[in-house]
Amino acid sequence: xxxxxxxxxxxxxxLNTGYATYAREVLTYLHSTGKYxxxxxxxxxxxxxPRGAEVPWKFYGTAPADDAPEDAKASFNSTPTxxxxxxxxxxxxLDFLPDIVCDIRDFWMLDFAERSPYRKYFKWCIMxxxxxxxxxxxxxxxxxxxxxxxxxxxxxxxxxxDQSGGAINYIGCAPPSAHAAxxxxxxxxxxxxxxxxxxxxxxxxxxxxxxxxxxxxxxxxAFRIYLDKYGDNNTFLYCHTSYPDLGWDIPELIHQNKLSxxxxxxxxxxxxxxxxxxxxxxxxxxxxxxxxxxxxxxSVKLGASYEDLSxxxxxxDVYVQYANSEGFGLPQVEAAxxxxxxxxxDYSAMESExxxxxxxxxxxxxxxxELETGCYRAVPDNExxxxxxxxxFSLSEEERSELSKKTRKAFEEKYQWDITGAMWENYxxxxxxVDPQYTWMSRPRIHQPEEKxxxxxxxxxxxxxxxxxxxxxxxxPERLNSxxxxxxxxxxxxxxxxxxxxxxxxxxxxxxxxxANTRQPFMLDNAYEHMKSLCLRRNHxxxxxxxxxxxx
Length: 552
Hints:
This protein is of the alpha/beta class. The protein has 20 helices and 20 strands.
């Protein structure tokens, strides 16, 4: 029997992002079994990227090569989702002929696979990022259409099962693990000295990119409350973050909370690429390696290695994940791998992860509904966080050491790449290979759309119009009684459709948030042309499939 052909869609596995790391570890595990033919569709990699030749499976980049024709570059830049592979997906499928396509990304990064003219020819296994509740109905509908669904957290799995009423084929949680570089140091006091830190200091640490959902204003306030009520002069907040970035004004937060001598940060020397620890002194400071102002706050472009981050985390007494929501929150697991006890906001993926790691949940004081998505986000209780900081530092050395051991043990038992890889392996092994004559070698599905009638009977309603459009213009009756149908009925009844965020998320709140310009007229002519274009697109790709495959 031939090997199953698996196309894995993620960020290029030679990158060090969260998605890339996950894909790399899972594909490495799957490749080691020798059971499968594997390919990756790699976002943020160029077509023909030489680094792709170094991976042991087939590699497809998503961005045009530097010497690509200008029309190819223009096509790539025409739609934001092309960076995730939408514009090359059908070509890649025709070249690789996958039995199974896997996606491990956010909804807007993966839903083009559902819309592909070739969707009938492959099984689709997804692992969406679920970072809040409720999930938009449009997202749930897409997840229901997948053949199987895994999640990063137990919390996410429960949300998907509850919202879909069990219609999603949820097969379990397959969380990421930490890189092997993350491990406890033998002597934390000596380690701190080697990092230029007081071995007796109390250090609350976090590793979070400076983004809006990472609640640095609240973390700074909670730390200030802790200092005022319980702290001493030898207590510090270590923020391994980025500045400037897309999030908060770090200097302003430090000034507001009078923490100029209390906040540590990681700087990276631009010449030596070596990191060092310093009290926050702005975006740039003097590097101990050059004696010049070549030290910059760590960033995506000038960051620290896994080994460096392990050294940084091992200076913490306790790790805190302070965010309004998380799809997972990998630094919690990395901290646990170092034996550093964990605190986290008691909401979203953090809710299950902090408990699995024997950590300390920080109950939020409220949830608020985010207009852009319609999802609930957490409002932290800074007074409570300050109390938990105090409780932790009130523990004896023996108690804190025991907590550290429990945290590391929880990591070893629950967060290992072999466990996660086996989850994917079990699913792939459960999928029966379909004879290609029924998939990629089947007869092309080419249908001519009916012409739009010059006028409709006066009693024709939107429901009837949409059913006719789906059946006779799109020629895909399998889309009847779907969210796709419901949305078009709504838009025809309303006389307009939402664009940008509102269109993506399918809720009125987001359309109102984005402003009046997000609505466009949507009448029968618009609906007809949209359905006709989808039909002709399918016919186009089916013709290409016939030329490439059926004439071999």
